[in-house]
Specification:
- This protein has 455 residues and is an alpha/beta fold.
- The chain folds into three domains: 112 residues, Gyrase A, domain 2 (2-Layer Sandwich); 131 residues, tRNA modification GTPase MnmE domain 2 (Four Helix Bundle (Hemerythrin (Met), subunit A), Up-down Bundle); 163 residues, Rossmann fold, CATH 3.40.50.
- Helix 7 packs antiparallel against helix 13.
- It is flat, with a radius of gyration of 30 Å.
- It binds guanosine-5'-triphosphate (GTP) and magnesium ion (MG).
- The site of guanosine-5'-triphosphate has 23 residues, from helix 9.
């Protein structure tokens, strides 16, 4: 347990008016603070009790509230915690917060400080703390499920198991280096190399996940692209269900990239509208086209919008955008003449979804098509496991895993066992950084446990 001297407090519910507002107090003075404001003995742990809360300076009653007392260490932060469930008026909350600020030893919490204390007290590892933050921020079903899985420790346990394997391998190798005269198994190094190759393969496969977890957390980026005036902005407004982008009959209306966040079948989507792509002299529109091409380069999925009025003519710039990451949409289908519409429409064997952004037709087919594409790439929302493994949700994890993998890949080529041992240490440290495990020297523990050296 880390001994924090100060006691922190904060409003745990959103600011503003609500039926209930919860103020949380954590630290050694939490129990005394409750005694001071309620002028009563501490309630039974973890049981809601009604108390009259008052200003200790003048005895003025602030509220009648339910209070909860969680003595350390069985609390969220691992410290003594008090929760005040008050009536959620602004004046009630602000009066209570100023009373608490006036109690010696108490101070307002910094953002994330409760979770930070929970981490430092070993109540959760870093991945679980991140999962908790993601759960609070989750907007969609996919985000909620992924965050909950991470908060429950799935990712942390997986990484910890890898780290333990590395610590064990290093311990065995160092035993061989440090105690060559002992009666140790002969093939330690060979077995170590084999185990390293196996773990490297597992980590490599884990990294090749199509960035699914990160996309679910940060949003899947879908970009509307195509020539000017085909109805990209009209389609954005339809899909977003509100009037976000300017629509006009003049080609070259959109210049800036316009983004909307939406939930499509439970997937978090960032949908961008872009300038129509064509060769122009106008410097503003040129910049718009440059930005559109930039969006195209980084998109997870491209919605290539084509014009029903001109169909089947398609300009080269639009053709060049079509790749396996694109979904083809023919807008202004209301202007298709019967001889141009031929049942199931295709371009280079790619199916085309026909819509009319103006009349609102074909949109549910387009949404369906997009959902299928999302499902195919980022998997079912019900299962957030690939095989049985949880997935990477942050660049931070990815960077650490790549560093770990680089260290492991050096080991088979290491000329001396000492260098291999050092790389094992680095690899374990990289993984330890993900869950926040501070590498105490566990190596000797393992050595003595496994080999009983020198008795
Ligand atoms: N008939 C018909 N007209 C449409 C349809 N969708 C859009 N339009 C019209 O086409 C024109 C261009 O629409 P926008 O949505 O501004 O087109 P855009 O692709 O965003 O154009 P830029 O921003 O200039 O690249 C407007 O006059 C729209 O009303 C449609 O489905 N059918
Ligand atoms: Mg536009």
């Amino acid at each position: 347990m880390v001994d924090f001297h100060d006691t922190i407090f904060a409003l745990a519910t959103p600011p503003g008016v609500g039926s209930i507002a919860i103020i949380r107090i954590s630290g050694p003075a939490a129990g005394d603070a409750l005694g001071t404001v309620s002028n009563a003995v501490l309630p039974v742990p973890r049981r809601a009790s009604l108390r009259t809360l008052q200003d200790p300076q003048n005895g003025e009653v602030i509220d009648h509230a339910l209070v909860l007392w969680f003595p350390a260490p069985a609390s969220f932060s691992g410290e003594d915690i008090v929760e005040l469930h008050m009536h959620g008026g602004r004046a009630v909350v602000s009066a209570m917060l100023s009373v608490l600020a006036g109690i010696s030893g108490l101070r307002p919490a910094e953002p994330g400080e409760f979770s930070r204390r929970a981490f430092l007290n070993g109540r959760l590892d870093l991945t679980a703390a991140e999962g908790l933050a993601d759960l609070v921020a989750a907007d969609t079903t996919a985000q909620r499920r992924q965050a909950l899985q991470q908060m429950d420790g799935a990712l942390g346990k997986l990484y910890e198991s890898w780290r333990e394997r590395l610590v064990l391998l290093r311990a065995h190798l160092e035993a061989e280096i440090d105690f060559p005269d002992e009666d140790l198994p002969q093939d330690i190094e060979i077995r170590m190399r084999k185990a390293v190759l196996e773990l490297a393969a597992v980590i490599r496969a884990h990294l090749e996940d199509g960035h699914r977890g990160e996309r679910i957390r940060d949003g899947i980026h879908i970009v509307l692209l195509g020539p000017p005036n085909v109805g990209k902005s009209s389609l954005l407004n339809r899909l977003a269900g509100r009037d976000v982008a300017i629509v006009s009959a003049t080609a070259g209306t959109t210049r800036d990239v316009i983004e909307v966040c939406m939930d499509l079948g439970g997937y978090p989507i960032v949908l961008s509208d872009t300038a129509g792509i064509r060769t122009v002299a106008d410097s503003l529109e040129k910049e718009g086209v440059r930005r559109a091409l930039g969006e195209a380069a980084t998109a997870d999925l491209k919605l290539i919008v084509m014009d029903g009025r001109n169909w089947p003519t398609l300009d080269d710039k639009t053709k060049a955008l079509i790749d396996p990451d694109s979904v083809l949409v023919l807008n202004k289908a209301d202007l298709l003449t019967t001889e141009r519409a031929d049942g199931e429409m295709k371009f280079n064997d790619k199916k085309i979804v026909c819509v009319s952004a103006l009349h609102g037709t074909g949109l549910s087919e387009l949404e369906q098509r997009l959902k299928e594409e999302l499902h195919r790439r980022w998997g079912a929302l019900e299962t957030h496991h690939r095989g049985n493994l949880p997935i990477i949700t942050r660049v931070r994890h990815r960077t650490a895993l790549k560093n770990c993998l680089a260290a492991l890949e050096r080991i088979p080529k290491a000329p001396w066992p000492e260098l291999a041992a050092e790389d094992l240490r680095l690899a374990a440290r990289d993984i330890g950084q993900i869950s926040g495990h501070i590498t105490v020297d566990e190596v000797l523990d393992v050595v003595f446990r496994d080999f009983c050296l020198g008795k």
